[in-house]
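$ ./design --mode recover --in tokens.txt
reading tokens...
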């Protein structure tokens, strides 16, 4: 096999596939994830924490392994074969990500370390350059800390006002209150497309339209949507979209910032150094073109190539099918968990407006105790505030338990979760 043929296999072209509109073939998918065959405490692992970070298929592992074995050299620097091959694959990964989210061009995809870094980049570069004392930033009560703290810091530093769209008792954004929260001083609106705690799917379009009508720019945090459903930046008309590779079958250390070209071009760099300049003299630097202006230093190009393979994998499954699968498993989990005495679902109970995240509390059982007891049965869930403490304050809860699903989860894993919950209740005499 030539290197190029190996590459074609590794890049996922020979991986899982799905006829358009067909349901996911989960058994076949699971065969691509070696880790799912592992045992934990003598039990076959039931991995229900993909909202924190997903598992990786062999196609992604092979794509990265292949670069290290066959085409590894620093990108954008060498004029020799390895460097040119690595650069071509890095550029190809950028183009795949652009296509995946419907971006008009690959240059509008900036690779970052993760969604958190992308949001910090926006706060530093866009926020510090374009916002003035007295301006307002509008976020929501359900944001992850990554879409909360950078704006709190910026607001304190620059004399800005941070405002919040409240949530309804059902756990949706209260859009009745949007118009009163949007004022002529609102310059930036930033919100999660899907909540990592409530699972709530927010239709971004009405918020974006109303924000644009008063001249504000809009950031969509796609960390919990881009991995799980079709996301199209053109249809949304958002100004920026951020997400992380590690939640969508890709490796850690690679994230994405999409931006409208004119905004990216107008923004100053975030980090400075090599690669992000076009020239440096003793009198000062000149910035490189976007997106390289925002990618200082040697980028995580092997990870970007891994993300490209993850995008191939998801594309082959079809994002409609991914969403349909998660809707089905979420509906089943909502139903089964609600039947457990003392269990309360946190967030919307309608799977149509809920991503593949089911958060709950169990009467007189601390979520951490529950998660530890479930682990004895090989069931991995997350417990805590899920980096959304303000939301938990608003809900009057210190911690919650969360099961989250992805392409490799099966309905019977929800049964395993329920069985383990009953065992935990019995062990705690609840
Ligand atoms: N949520 C969870 O278990 P990073 O850490 O940068 O890859 O992603 C940050 C982030 C931003 N927005 C949302 C909506 C998120 O859910 C996350 C990450 C994980 O819920 C880890 S705390």
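writing sequence...
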């Amino acid at each position: 096999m030539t290197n190029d043929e190996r590459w074609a296999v590794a890049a996922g072209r020979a991986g899982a596939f799905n006829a358009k509109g067909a349901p996911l073939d989960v058994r076949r998918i699971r065969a691509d994830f070696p880790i799912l065959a592992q045992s934990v405490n003598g039990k076959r692992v039931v991995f229900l924490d993909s909202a924190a970070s997903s598992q990786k298929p062999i196609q992604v592992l092979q794509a990265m392994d292949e670069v290290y074995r066959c085409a590894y050299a620093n990108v954008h620097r060498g004029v020799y074969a390895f460097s040119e091959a690595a650069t071509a694959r890095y550029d190809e990964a950028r183009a795949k990500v652009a296509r995946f989210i419907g971006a008009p061009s690959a240059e509008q995809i900036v690779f970052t370390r993760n969604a958190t870094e992308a949001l910090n980049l926006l706060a530093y570069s866009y926020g510090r350059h374009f916002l003035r004392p007295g301006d307002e930033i509008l976020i929501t009560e359900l944001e992850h800390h990554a879409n909360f703290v950078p704006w709190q810091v910026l607001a304190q530093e620059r004399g800005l006002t941070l405002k919040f769209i409240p949530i309804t008792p059902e756990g949706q954004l209260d859009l009745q209150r949007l118009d009163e929260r949007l004022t002529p001083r609102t310059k930036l609106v930033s919100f999660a497309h899907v909540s990592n705690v409530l699972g709530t799917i927010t239709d971004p379009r009405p918020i974006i339209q109303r924000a644009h009508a008063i001249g504000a720019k809009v950031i969509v945090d796609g960390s919990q949507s881009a991995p799980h459903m079709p996301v199209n930046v053109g249809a949304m008309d958002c100004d920026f979209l951020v997400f992380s590779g590690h939640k969508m079958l890709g490796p850690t250390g690679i994230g994405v910032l999409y931006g409208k070209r004119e905004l990216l071009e107008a923004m100053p760099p975030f980090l400075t150094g090599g690669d992000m300049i076009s020239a440096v003299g003793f009198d000062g630097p000149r910035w490189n073109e976007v997106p390289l202006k925002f990618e200082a230093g040697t980028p995580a190009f092997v990870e970007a190539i891994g993300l490209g393979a993850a995008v191939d994998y998801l594309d082959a499954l079809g994002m409609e099918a991914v969403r349909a699968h998660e809707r089905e498993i979420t509906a089943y989990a909502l139903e089964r968990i609600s039947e457990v005495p003392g269990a309360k679902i946190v967030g919307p109970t309608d799977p149509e407006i809920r991503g593949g995240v089911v958060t709950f509390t169990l009467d007189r059982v601390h979520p951490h105790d529950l998660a530890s007891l479930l682990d004895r049965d090989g069931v991995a869930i997350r417990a805590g505030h899920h980096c959304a403490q303000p939301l938990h304050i608003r809900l009057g809860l210190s911690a919650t338990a969360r099961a989250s699903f992805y392409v490799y989860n099966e309905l019977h894993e929800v049964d395993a979760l329920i069985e383990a919950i009953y065992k935990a209740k019995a062990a705690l005499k609840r």
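exit 0
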